[in-house]
Every structure is written in C-alpha cells, then in structure tokens.
Design brief:
InterPro entries: Metal_Hydrolase, Pept_M19. The chain contains twelve helices and nine strands. By secondary structure, it is of the alpha/beta class. Strands 1, 2, 3, 4, 5, 6, 7, 8 and 9 form a nine-stranded parallel β-sheet that branches.
Length: 308
C-alpha cells in the first residue's frame, strides 16, 4: 500500500481534454492506478503561468469539477478523502483521492477564493510555484522574498482549517517564514539537496526543521531532482530515501511522484505501475516497519484534519 502526495493529472485532463479512464497520454489513469500498489493518490490543481490572471480561479474551479466528474463519481470504489477518518475507513478494495492546490496564484489577493477551494475539498495548499504571487516568491524568482502579509493571512487560514501548508517550490526565505507561522507543514515533492544539489531540493537545515516541526516530506520522481547523471535509475531515487532515513526523517518521509507533471522519467519509473519496482528494492534495503511508515503510515498519521 502506497500513498502518493502529488501528481498533475488534473492539469492534463483539463488542458488536453483526455479521459482519465483510458488515456495512454497519462502516467496515471484509472486502469494503471488499479494495477499499481498506490492506495491513495493526491491530485493537484495547478494553473499554468500563461493563463491570464483574471481566468485563473475559473480554471481552478474547472479542475475541481474534473476531479469529481472523472475521478470520483464514475467509480463506487474510489472515495473522496476529506480527512484522516476517511483514510482510516477505506476498505481493502477501495482507493482514495485527495484534492490539493499547487500554488496560490489562482486566488490572487482574495482569501475568499481560498476558502471556497477548501470548502470544495482542497486539503493541502502549496503557497506558490517557481514564480512569485501575492503570497510568496517561488524558488525561481530572483528576488527571493519570503512570505507577504497576505501570505501570513493565508497560513493563518490554513492553520484554522487544519490544512497542510506545502513548501515545495517556495523560495528559500519563504521556507523559513512558513516554519515560523504554519502548524501543519509538508514538502509534497522534494528530494535531498545533499544527494542532488538542485534548487528545488531540501538542504539539511530545511530537513531538520521539517523533522522538528513534525512535517511530512514526499520523495519525488523528477529525474533532475534525483541525480546529475545522464541516465537516472530507481537506484538513484533509493539513495535519497536512505539519506532521509539516515538523518532522522523516518517518521516524516513518504512519496510525491509528480507523475504527469514531468516530461522526462527516471528509467524504470515511467508510470504509476512502476511503484512496484521501488517497493521491491526497499524491501531489501530497509526494515518492514520503516517501509510501512514511508509508504503510507506517516501520511495518515500526519494528515491534519481529523474529521469534517
């Protein structure tokens, strides 16, 4: 059993008008999901930066509709996950789907828009993407500013609503601001900087703060975040997992593949069914208790909203 905290299926369903049920242009479709060991999948709302600002919230609402119309409603055994109790009540034959937001660009400076998305089911909120918005700068913004005053209001709302604040993509200064203000923190898809020095990865200081904050970290399948080698393999991904475990992240670690958000793949990890490759390798490298924690227990234990 695996819980995956990040994919961009909704973006492809929205932009390419393909079918979740059968499309072979997806790394996660309904058929592949059922053949994989993934029990719960998080689906991100991500608005491409080329979408005009005045249309971004509408695009987010359209993706919410796609989530319910194509992923939840057609299948009796795929359940919408709103809280920790929903996770715990999943039956053996059932799968769960969580709605998340990757970047607050769609809300502009309107907190009511974020409240609406939370009421519609969003349970983890990435404050920004690589660029800047009204909440914070992203890791790709040269200015590198931290959380704005409006950003502090956003985090206050997330704390009140028991929603994860996601620091993947955020600026370096923004990360430390989040640590000061957020009660529930995750890095949904970020690898270890000490293994691969990409700007999107977490350095040791950031990792230790996430551990102290009782946060959650998702190892991601983005090749550029995994290794500088010409050909990146699943062994390179395992190296990040072992590193995280060795520096004390055993109770914080999980997976955030970023499937359907990447165009280049780790060799052998090209769609959701390939999770079994990682599982098979980890069974020989770590204890059974550690395996259970990073595949699903840590995510469940740290899910902020208990019910409702």
């Amino acid at each position: 059993m695996i819980i995956d905290a990040h994919c961009d299926v909704l973006l492809k369903l929205w932009s390419e008008k393909v079918s979740f049920a059968t499309s072979n242009r997806l790394q996660i479709n309904e058929l592949m999901w059922r053949r994989s060991p993934v029990k719960v999948q998080c689906f991100a709302i991500f608005i491409p930066e080329e979408i005009p600002e005045e249309f971004q919230f509408q695009a987010a609402l359209e993706m919410v509709n796609i989530f319910f119309d194509q992923i939840i409603k057609p299948y009796d055994d795929i359940k919408f996950i709103s809280n920790k109790n929903d996770l715990l009540l999943l039956k053996e034959h059932e799968r769960g789907a969580v709605l998340t937001l990757e970047g607050c660009h769609a809300i502009g400076r309107d907190l009511n828009k974020l409240k609406t998305l939370i009421r519609l089911g969003v349970r983890a909120v990435g404050l920004t993407w690589n660029n800047a918005n009204a909440v914070c700068d992203g890791i790709g913004e040269k200015r590198g500013a931290g959380i704005s005053s409006f950003g502090e209001e956003v985090i206050e709302l997330l704390n009140k609503e028991q929603i994860w604040t996601d620091v993947s993509h955020i600026s370096y200064n923004g990360f430390f601001d989040v640590m000061k203000h957020a009660d529930y923190v995750m890095a949904s898809h970020s690898n270890a900087f000490s293994i691969c020095d990409h700007r999107r990865n977490l350095d040791d200081q950031q990792i230790q703060l996430l551990i102290e904050k009782k946060g959650w970290i998702g190892v991601t399948f983005v090749p550029q975040f995994t290794s500088k080698k010409a050909t990146v393999t699943h062994e390179d991904l395992i190296e990040h997992i072992i590193y995280y475990l060795n520096i004390g992240a055993e109770n914080c670690l999980g997976f955030g593949s970023d499937f359907d958000g990447i165009e280049e793949y780790i060799k052998g990890l090209e769609d959701i069914t390939d999770y079994q490759v990682v599982m098979n390798e980890l069974e020989y490298r770590i204890s059974n208790e550690q395996l259970k924690k990073i595949t699903y227990l840590n995510f469940i234990n740290k899910f902020p909203r208990i019910k409702g």
